[in-house]
Amino acid sequence: MYDFDAGDLSLNFANTQDWHASEKPVENLKSYADLVTWGEQAGLVSPEYAIQMHRLANEHPEDATNAFAFAVQVREDLYRVFSHRYTGEPIREDDLALLNSVVSQARAHMQLTPADGEIHWEWTPEINGANLILWPVARAAADLLTSDKASKVRVCEDDRGCGYLFIDQTKNHSRRWCSMDSCGNRAKARRHYSRLQAD
Length: 199
What we know:
This protein is mainly alpha-helical. Helix content is 53%, strand content 11%. It contains 7 helices and 6 strands, in the order αββααααββαββα. The protein has helices spanning 9-14, 32-41, 47-59, 61-87, 93-107, 131-145, 180-198; strands spanning 17-18, 26-27, 110-115, 118-123, 153-155, 165-167. The model is unreliable at 191-196 (pLDDT under 50).
């Protein structure tokens, strides 16, 4: 149901709305239940805990509604930050402020833990609910934005407004579309048609 081919957890989350850059985006996250399902498919929530999250959402629908609304707000924030960085548009201060607030919450619930002779970051036991999804996403976004990979984040250049975010991992960094099977083939066909018309 959901796509996980963007190359980063935060981009995968930002891509949960199709045709993001068009006038008529297609929403894939329509409820708290969808958010939980995405988290489970992303490997952030175990099947057992997903069941628990669904049960708690039924018991506290207002809390679930608020958590879902905030998750969508964070997603839109991430999309603007990464797409503006790619296009060279100024990144809004309020977008960074929201991301910083979620990242701060996330880091406050991480601890250094020994495992297999190494030291690793691990979530504290009290992390729960939608935070199991949002906090890892926000941390991934922060790590990506401050890494060398940030310059390789692209937005699909399909003229209809696909808007899919992805990390360009090609050797010559020339990838322009989400997929050659969809937007790329369409662009190729349009160029071919334009050449025929010009002849």
